[in-house]
Amino acid sequence: MAGDSIKQFERLSRIRHIYGLLEQSAQDYHDRTLFKDASGKTTNYRDAVSMMHALARGLLLSGLTTGDRIALYGERNSSSWCISYLAILRMGGVVVPLDPGLKKSELESLLTDCGASGVICSGSKVEDFKQLRQEIEAFETIISLDSGSSFGVTSNDELIRKAERENIKLTDSDPEKLAILIYTSGTTGKPKGVMLSHWNIVSDILAVHQTLEFYPEDVFLSILPLHHTFECTAGFLTPMSKGCSIIFARSLKSAEIVEDMRENKATIMCGVPLVFEKMHISFKRKIGKSSVFNKWLFKTLYSISKFGLNRHSYWGRTLFGSLRRKAGVDKLRMLVSGGAALAYDVGEFFNAIGLTLVQGYGLSETSPVLSVNPVERNKWESIGPPLTGVDMHIDNPDSSGVGEIVARGPMVMLGYYNDDEATNAVLQNGWFFTGDIGQMDDEGYFHITGRSKNVIVSAAGKNVYPEEIEMLLNASPYILESLVLGRRQKNSAAEDVTAVIVPDRDFIMQHEDLEGHEEMRSAEDLIEREVKTVCAHLADFKRIKKYYIRQEELPKTTTRKVKRFLELDNYGNLVERQRV
Questions:
Q1: Residue 259 DSSP SS3
Q2: Residue ranges of the chain with pLDDT lower than 50?
Q3: What is the pLDDT of residue 306?
Q4: Which of 113, 362, 371, 575 has a C-alpha 20 to 30 A away from that of 235?
């Protein structure tokens, strides 16, 4: 760092509260655009901090108090969501970001578990939350994110106007106490809520700034949902802390993303591997439709660029300047991938054509970033070296140096909400056991080679917990037992949710009065119906993509527990997973 960057970082390093990042940036960049909504509406830093303070006072006037759990539900990314998030924190509340893809029963489970006092939500969902209010004790306050229509509840704008007539002093909360509660599972009997403090998040942002450079002139294109910890920290709070502009994409359609990039001169975008895989495919299709000469030229230049990459020379930035201009992405200077493993060929392609794509690593439990590749020493096949202030090592490595990745640092969570058993299982003597299996190379870069946890990571980077789905399947009287696991998608590091189901043949025979082949057909029909019923109660990303019916019981350990170190072969048979 040099000059103004050093001075700005020194100011940032004194901040301990998340809302302090906006307060500081508003002093430095008051007239600069902070947000641009998909509608085209813009908000500068001066107005954003003013609205944050007013809404924080308005929330206190509405009856909410310091320490209250306040849910935040937005159907799409918006400046209103961001200001609501900051205002909840500024008034001393605990913000509970909710996934808009969750079903009503899942929302009820989470709101009940955290003891939410209220919610700020999209106007179209007000009626759903009114119904939930009748079922959940202590859940009373419903506030609409949207204005201009009557939803039968107060809105953010009304609270802001009300606060302008009142004089309420805002006080700072303890930066190391609970401030954000992020749920990483759905409707299990005891959902896991990751508890994060202001300092967890701020320390993570400060550490990121010491590896990746951001400038006030940068324009971030925000495409991932803001309730996703990766987007909230990396695509919202981090750029806000450096005076950058944040553009909310109109959709996740590749064509519209590229249009938004071009029209807004976007310089940085965070995404999950699925986004970059689609962009990769789009590029390849366009190249495939070009003339014979252009195909030959691309292949030749690509080979030269790859040769340079092996020596950390990024010749593609010059060689493919024309290609990037034609594609409308010539202003992009950095893409950041996280949330799931990035396929090697995708990382290589983007870097070879001069679009710097770096891969980072982390979990909701770590705010989330633990490591990231530096731009000029980028190994896209790795998750990079640890951030400054992060200790990472391989626990109990085998002869090849492979073992579980463990980490410690100020960004590691406080624990799981109301779940000491789960907390103690992953937090030991200050170390967080990630559940990911990997190794460290000679240059201190970490490489993930597998996962010890049962969690399935979807193409969008969302976590799917198989026990939750198994519980619902096994509740059916027609199902004896089930095993839910991830199955790797073709040419992708992402996994599809797959199930192996054992029908309860005795129950089916007794209650359907069938036998022989007729009974077999009936069992298949019943299982199909039960799977559809379960999926209807799950968020889309959790739904079973394929299932197999197994006639014999699932493989068990000597203590009669279902073996989980299994995978499916091409024929749907359970086989021992190949160990790392």
A1: helix
A2: 186-189, 517, 558-560, 579-580
A3: 96
A4: 113
Give the DSSP letter of residue 249: -
Looking at the structure, do residues 92 and 184 belong to the same domain, yes or no? yes
Last residue of a domain, one of 418, 435, 451: 451
Same domain as 234, residue 213: yes
Q: What is the pLDDT of residue 84?
A: 98
Euclidean distance between CA atoms 480 and 467, whole angstroms: 15
- Quote the CA–CA distance of 148 and 231 in Å, as a whole number: 28
Which residue in the block uniquely carries the two structure tokens 């700034």? 209
Cα angle 332-462-531, degrees, rounded to a multiple of 5? 140
Residue 177 makes CB contacts below 8 A (sequence gap 6+) with 197
Between CA 188 and CA 110 the distance in angstroms is 10
Cα atoms in the Cβ-side hemisphere of radius 13 Å centred on 398: 9
Last residue of a domain, one of 248, 283, 317: 248
**3-state SS class at 525:** helix
Residues 361-380 have pLDDT tens digits of: 999 999 999 999 999 999 99
- Which amino acid appears at position 507 of this protein? F
Q: Does residue 255 form part of some domain?
A: no
Residue 209 lies inside a defined structural domain of this protein: yes
Q: In terms of domains, do 340 and 236 share one?
A: no
One DSSP character per residue, 462-488 reads -EE-HHHHHHHHHTSTTEEEEEEEEEE
CB atoms within 10 A of CB 524: 12
Structural domain range at position 315: 272-451
Give the CA angle between residues 490, 493, 496 to the nearest 5°.
65
Q: The domain spanning residue 149 has which CATH number?
A: 3.40.50.12780
Tokens representing 108 are: 């009820």
| CA neighbor of 333 nearest in space, from 210, 206, 214, 209 | 214
At 189 the pLDDT is: 39
Tell me whether residue 495 is in a domain.
yes
pLDDT value for 452: 62
pLDDT at 345: 87
206 assigned to some structural domain: yes
Dig out the tokens for 493 from the structure: 């590091």
Q: pTM higher than 0.85, yes or no? A: no
- Which residues 6+ apart lie within 8 Å of 517 measured at CB? none
Parallel/antiparallel/unpaired status of strands 456-457 and 446-451: unpaired
Same domain, 114 and 217: yes
Same domain, 402 and 503: no
The pLDDT value given to residue 186: 40
Give residue-wise pLDDT tens across range 252-295: 887 888 899 999 999 999 998 878 888 888 888 889 889 999 99
Tell me: do 326 and 383 sit in the same domain. yes
Q: Give the model's pLDDT for residue 110.
A: 94
CA triple 324-32-56, angle to 5 deg:
120
Is there a single domain that holds both residue 433 and residue 525? no
- What's the CATH code of the domain at 487? 3.30.300.30
Q: Can you give the pLDDT at residue 254?
A: 78
Question: Helices in 391-465 by DSSP H: which ranges?
Answer: 420-426
Q: How far apart are CA 17 and CA 416, in angstroms?
A: 21
Looking at the fold, whether 289 and 403 belong to one and the same domain comes out as yes
Q: Is residue 521 within 8 Å of residue 532, measured between CB atoms?
A: no
Backbone angles phi, psi at 505, to 5 degrees: -60, -40
